[in-house]
TrEMBL record:
Compositional bias ranges of the Acidic residues kind: 378-387
SMART domains: CENPB
Span of domain HTH CENPB-type: 1-62
Upper lineage: Eukaryota, Metazoa, Ecdysozoa, Arthropoda, Hexapoda
Protein name: Jerky protein homolog-like
Keyword DNA-binding among record annotations: yes
Gene name for this UniProt entry: LOC115065869
Spans annotated as Disordered: 367-395
Subcellular location(s) per record: Nucleus
Keyword annotations: DNA-binding
Amino acid sequence: MEKALYRWFLKQRQKNYPVNGLIVKEKAKFFHSKIKETQSDFNASDGWLQRFKKRYGVRFIKISGEKLSSRPELVDPFKNKLQAKIKELGLSHDQIYNADESGLFWKLLPDRTYVSSQEKNAPGRKTEKQRVTFLACTNATGVHKVKLLVIGKAKNPRSFKNFDSPVDYNCSKSSWMTAAIFKDWFHHSFVPQVRKFLKDQGLPNKALLLIDNAPSHPPENELRSDDELITAMFMPPNVTPLIQPMDQNAIRLTKFFYRNSLLASIVATGTDVIEALKKLTLRDAIGYLDLAWQRLEKETIAKCWTNILSSIEDEKDCDEDIPLATLRERICLPINCQQERAIELLHSINPEVSFSIADINEWTEDFPNSTETNEVLTSDESESEDSNLERPHTRIEPSEAINIFNKALEWAEDENISPTDISVLKRLREKAVFSNLQNKKIQKKITHFFQ
């Protein structure tokens, strides 16, 4: 019966039909009634379903809505069109840009963070669902990351008083992108920033911006600089999830960085999670979001352009002969690191609740790199190497450093220190948080308990 059920399941998935647990159980009852392997009643219980999934390696995941409607057959014709456009304009990869927007629930934490193992639910607790939209834009080499555009609901947020925002801020009634906001961003932010970058790099004053055909994007003829040297080009419908660079992990990684900075700030303050979220302002969220954007490395961004630029490379890619599984692992490595960090931070906030990778992905879908992780893990090792040097003071423990950075951040806010410098303090505080978590994991010697 189960073999027949599994064959049926595979056929449904080949057709991209959604299959949930209830459907599987009902179909199992149907096959059992037809085959009748045993005379006993078969109820298709939840326990049987779990065992069936384990035996056949079946897992239930969230449906990716856009990819089901994607049309891969349109990808190659667009690549050829893009290739011709780049040759016509004589552009290098430094002069090709992509912009895409995404929503961010900047106060939202996983629901399970707020309940203990003894609680079955959290009645009467309101979920924080304040939302902003942010627009991410980079060039194909990842060398130039355009300043983020953040769209909120408030025209003049109270927390913005005496605040020199590190991002461009705009507003709409729904905090969503509109054609007017995108057009204003293109002419008054994107074009000036691109011109400055090209001038600094000694490149010709011309560039191409690739965007999808969302209703909130104005027509191409309205997205041209005054000298018509910086223009926009629309991608065809139903191919953007497959090849749009910002959709190939750039935005997702930015959200991971933001989430982990948010969690680290909650751990650092040592206050109740709910109270910490109440004190979180849009000003704080923008600071964490800008910090997350700055953490995105140019090598990571360049990989996001592989799908769309693969057919216009002049030289053979050195990765061509590497197995697909290895390439996928390399691309996903930064995300895997951030998933592990998020789980570790959530566990430190609420040790009684366990989280899986699927939980983290669902949380970020509303959707510090591996080098930084290594720096944190080896901080104690570096310290031991310098232990022979004379020091005028004793070593500061990570927990003490966290308190110091908290005080420094309060002072910086009062003194209206630049957002760039404040981001540095927040980044150092996050390192101290992770270092403190690693120290707690070190197993103590038995002699420690007799001191």
